[in-house]
Design brief:
The chain is an alpha+beta fold. Helix content is about 50%, strand content about 25%. It has one domain (about 5-115). The strands form two sheets. The chain has a two-stranded antiparallel ribbon. A two-stranded antiparallel sheet has the order 2-3. A hairpin with a 2-residue loop joins strand 2 (about 100) and strand 3. The N and C termini lie far apart (about 45 Å).
């Protein structure tokens, strides 16, 4: 059984707290005058390389740290945090099932909303 197949049995319970606000975004689109609002939720695997790359975006790094530090401090700190996270010797205890074929990842859930504006 692949990781995806095994995880599918637990996906709804795992994702419930993260999807509680889906209706908010759908309604927000409708309130803004959009019609034919559709959405799709999907899991996305973030590996170390991706997290380090995203951490180079100043606004992301600063936002993740609640704008408490300037980007010159936030970006390197976020990249180092990703390195520390993915090399943690206790990875399997902290993130069970978040490794496949020797590749570690953090699972994130993306919401894609499409709509039409008349």
């Amino acid at each position: 059984m692949s990781w995806d197949e095994g995880f599918a049995d637990h996906y709804d319970a795992w994702s419930a707290p993260m999807t509680a606000d889906v209706g908010f975004y759908v309604e927000l689109a409708r309130q803004a005058g959009f019609t034919d609002v559709r959405y799709r939720e999907m899991p996305v695997r973030f590996d170390q390389e991706l997290i380090e790359a995203i951490s180079d975006y100043w606004s992301y790094a600063q936002g993740a740290l609640h704008f408490r530090w300037p980007a010159e401090v936030a970006c390197p700190a976020m990249r180092q945090a990703a390195r520390d996270l993915f090399t943690d010797p206790d990875w399997n205890q902290k993130f069970p099932g978040m490794e496949q074929d020797g590749q570690r990842f953090i699972l994130r859930r993306f919401l894609w909303v499409t709509a039409r504006k008349p």
